[in-house]
Amino acid sequence: MRILFLTDNFPPETNAPATRTFEHARRWVRAGAKVTVITTAPNFPAGRIFPGYRNRLFQREWIDGVETIRVWTYITANEGFARRTLDYMSFMVMGFLAGLFLPRPNVIVSTSPQFFTACAAYVLSIFKRRPFVFELRDLWPDSIIAVGAMRESAAIRALKRLEYFLYRKAARIVSVTNSFKTVLSGNGVPADKIAVVRNGADLKGFTPGPKPDDLVARHGLKGKFVAAYIGTIGMAHGLGTILEAAQRMKANRNIAFVLVGDGAERAALEQQARERALDNVIFVGSVGKDEVVGYWRLADAALVLLRDRPVFRHVLPSKMFEAMATERPIVLGVLGESAALLELAGAGVVIQPESAGELEKAILRLAADPEACREYGRKGRRFVEAEFDRDKLAALMLEELRSVAAA
């Protein structure tokens, strides 16, 4: 079976779409499929091309058995709607053109959050006369409105029409949450064409372990309770809440906040932290994939936060599963499906989104009760082992692709 996959994020980028696509693709290769990924020169989220790469018209490499085609795109940082749209549209065009010259696949897949990539996959499916599968990671453009990047307008209404046009044209929609399926089916998309393959964790790569001594020493964290946020520092996450909580806890020298990652909000948050003299907040910046596990182990509590918007009640952040796989208790500032899942797992504490007071209380409670932290961690690991092992999820999605190709 030959799979053609279009995504504008792929390793060495480490955000959730890149990780999920790669983790699935390499497992499909091991299962006997031939997988070609069309993507960009790695640059997310800062808009700077990673060392060793160039923004060329066309380049090919192999990553763990996955044929990876990188095409030229307009590159910009993950901020500013107009420039990001140019980025997305340039990949739509170049990804489509690259796909025309590749061998005919059995199935063509695209992944969101933005769906210009899905436009390229759909048009390619017409030219190649092969089915198109839409992997749905986000309700875009609703999330654009939720973070304040755009207001409801004629342009947004046009994007919503395009969104549902693509849902209709897809042979199958693979949703990462049950909530997305509910939203789509409630808006007229046939439920029987929507499969749910949720996020998970690589249980061989993300394993429990002690705090790395080198990271403790590097960041001056000996003897401190570390509350860590690991991931994109973007408009959706409401990480100003961390600074507010840090301000309230400034006198407590035994607690530190560590933010690992980059994104549109990082510079502004760092500036605010300097202005407030928050020496209990450490910004690490982006780290390589091989370092991420070390930072999860550095954490005494994992912070999983989003802004308080209705659209985010449908999401299921992938960092939840990485935290649980490494046996770290979670402080979750997300309501809806995420909160229900965390409570089912018994792997942490749910707080009201964007509430610095509740965040402070949750951290103080965990810092005072090491045994509760260990129990949350153990329950989380058992939960992902049973329900969210990446091996099982990749096999489930491969079966969906095979059924579409065989139809």
Backbone CA Rg? 21 Å
CATH level-four homologous superfamily name of the largest domain: Glycogen Phosphorylase B
User: What percentage of the residues does DSSP assign to strands (E)?
Assistant: 15-25%
Query: Which sequence of SSEs, written as H and E, runs from N to C?
Result: EHEEEHEHEHHEHEHEHEHEHEHEHEHHH
Which fold name fills CATH's third level, the topology of the largest domain?
Rossmann fold
Question: Roughly what is the average pLDDT, rounded to an integer?
Answer: 92
Largest sheet: 8 strands, mixed
How many domains comprise the coordinates? 2
DSSP summary, beta strand count: 14
Taking the alpha carbons of the first and last residues, their distance comes to 14 Å
Tell me the structural class: alpha/beta
Shape: globular
As an assembly, this protein is single chain
Q: Flag low-confidence runs.
A: none
Q: Record the strand order, biggest sheet.
A: 3-4-2-1-5-6-7-8
Distinct helical segment count: 15
- CATH class group of the largest domain: Alpha Beta
The CATH architecture term of the largest domain is: 3-Layer(aba) Sandwich
Explain this structure:
With 407 residues, the chain is of the alpha/beta class. The chain has 2 domains: 2-200 and 389-406, 3-Layer(aba) Sandwich (Rossmann fold), CATH 3.40.50; 213-387, Rossmann fold. It is 43% helix and 17% strand. It is built from 15 helices and 14 strands. It has helices spanning 16-30, 81-100, 116-128, 142-146, 154-169, 178-186, 213-218, 240-248, 266-275, 289-298, 319-325, 337-345, 356-367, 370-387, 390-406; strands spanning 2-6, 34-40, 58-63, 66-71, 107-111, 132-136, 172-175, 194-196, 225-230, 255-260, 281-285, 301-305, 330-333, 348-350. An 8-stranded mixed β-sheet has the order 3-4-2-1-5-6-7-8, sandwiched between helices. Strands 11-10-9-12-13-14 form a 6-stranded parallel β-sheet, with helices on both faces. Helix 2 packs parallel to helix 3 (116-128). The longest helix is centred in the N-terminal third of the chain and has 20 residues, at 81-100. The chain is globular. 49% of the residues are buried.
